[in-house]
Amino acid sequence: MNLETGFQRLEKEINRLDSENKYMEIWWRDDDLEAPSHSLENMISVSDNINLTPLLAVVPARASRQLVNLLNQCNINIAMHGLNHYNYEPLTRKKAEFGSFRPIEAQWKDLEKGIGHLEQLFGDLFLKCFVPPWNRINNELTKTLPSFGISSLSTFSSRKAATPVPGLLQVNTHVDVIDWKEKRRFIGAELMADKIAGELQNCRTRLIDTLEPIGLLTHHLIMSIDDWKEFQEVCLVLKKSTSINLTSPINYFG
Ligand SMILES: [Zn+2]
Asked: In the chain, what are the domains?
């Protein structure tokens, strides 16, 4: 029986990277930001402790002035997380704000509104990155993102191409640390370490798009202070490795 723990598997994968002289980038995105909260403060202090800045996906229609002030103080960049974070798909389909059910013209309107709102509120803190709610976006909208001034897209799981359309860079997340199906809570450090090990193994062994960075995905509103401690513990393991570069989102989306 395999009794290897998540941390052991992670250490083993890191050692493999070292011995094969391979190098991986890992970055971090946090979703569903609307306003300052204790949860956000907990996340920011972990970010300081590990010296890694997340990209904060902000819901434009709900972004508050207090949030702008706080993020300006901390100098943390944001992305656009839909407009209202509404689901417009019928019940029989998977949730999406920018799925294929709603007319594209209505989606363009929302896109334009959200961009204008974030530019006005956040100025240069807003990197022109679009994070569609539920990580779903229809192809037609993707094709037109650059014409609205959006230069990057971030969803979940391995990207099909680094540049899905000219002028648009895609940098995805791969390790979701929330268990959405069962308990809707943090999966724990062991499982997080195990999932990262799995992604490192995928990257080490795959032949195409070997440059795709691995993205961690968090939802600060769901995570407790103890969850963040565990998250930090895993990140500190990654930080010790010279084969892994924990990368700031500005390096991709700036
Ligand atoms: Zn969301």
From this structure: 6-253 (3.20.20.370)
Centroid of ligand 1 to alpha carbon of 59 (angstroms): 8
Q: How far apart are CA 30 and CA 74, in angstroms?
A: 15
40 C-alpha to ligand 1 centroid (Å): 15
How far, in Å, is the centroid of ligand 1 from the Cα of 22? 33
- 18 CA distance to ligand 1 centroid (A)? 35
How many A from CA of 51 to the centre of ligand 1?
24
CB 67 within 8 A of CB 36: yes
| Ligand 1 centre distance from Cα of residue 85 (Å) | 7
Q: Can you give the pLDDT of all 254 residues of the chain as single tens digits?
A: 567 899 999 999 999 999 999 999 999 999 999 999 999 999 999 999 999 999 999 999 999 899 999 999 999 999 999 999 999 999 999 999 999 999 999 999 999 999 999 999 999 999 999 999 999 999 999 999 999 999 999 999 999 999 999 999 999 999 999 999 999 999 999 999 999 999 999 988 887 777 899 999 999 999 999 999 999 999 999 999 999 999 999 999 98
pTM of the complete model beyond 0.70: yes
Name residues whose C-beta falls within 8 Å of residue 147's C-beta, 6 or more positions apart in sequence: none
Cα–ligand 1 centroid distance for 31 (angstroms):
5
- Taking the centre of ligand 1 as the mean of its atom positions, its distance from the CA of residue 218, in whole angstroms, is 10
Which of 191, 171, 183, 174 lies closest to 231, judged by CA? 191
- Backbone φ/ψ region at 157: left (φ over 0), alpha (ψ -120 to 50), beta: left
* DSSP assignments along 111-134, one per residue: HHHHHHHHHHHHGGGEEEEE--GG
